[in-house]
Specification:
- With about 130 residues, the chain is α+β, with helices and mostly antiparallel strands.
- It contains four helices and six strands; from the N terminus they run E-E-H-E-H-E-E-H-E-H.
- The protein folds into two domains: about 30 residues, no CATH class; about 80 residues, Alpha-Beta Plaits (2-Layer Sandwich), CATH 3.30.70.
- Helix content is about 35%, strand content about 20%.
- A four-stranded antiparallel beta sheet has the order 4-5-3-6.
- The longest helix is centred in the last third of the chain and has 18 residues.
- The N and C termini lie far apart (about 45 Å).
């Protein structure tokens, strides 16, 4: 990985990054080179907050992708439905919740209860908007 990459001033404001400029060399860095950095941002692993351990269950087949990408820490490799239970160290809640939303009904927050409630509230606000 080249020198530090200028990606976003605030992690929670970051959108999908297709290209950035390496601050050290001025060369363009393509999305593939940014993947490890972006995945950490999306999963809420970077930030200034105190880390909270979030435990989630991801159903099959999405669970295979999450495990294959090396995201989170596998706690229970295969559940009854073929899914996986994982833990994440979450410093910034909002990006993590937005990332979980991309899995639709295939993801469930197991703990902490506050994060489970937060995801349910976000899902309800989305439902209300489109009802």
């Amino acid at each position: 990985m080249p020198h530090a990459v200028a990606v976003a001033a605030d992690v929670h404001e970051m959108a999908v990054v297709h290209q950035a400029v390496d601050e050290g060399s001025g060369h363009h860095v393509v999305a593939e080179d940014l993947a490890p950095l972006v995945e950490g941002f999306v999963a809420g692993e970077h930030g200034r907050g105190k880390p909270v351990t979030a435990r989630i269950r991801v159903a099959f087949p999405q669970s295979r992708w999450v495990v294959g990408e090396g995201l989170g820490r596998v706690v229970r490799p295969v559940t009854r439905d073929g899914g996986t239970e994982l833990e994440f160290s979450v410093r910034t809640k909002d990006p993590f919740l937005r990332w979980l939303l991309t899995f639709g009904p295939q993801v469930e927050v197991l703990s902490p209860p506050s994060l489970k409630r937060d995801l349910a509230q976000v899902r309800e606000r989305i439902r209300a908007r489109y009802d």
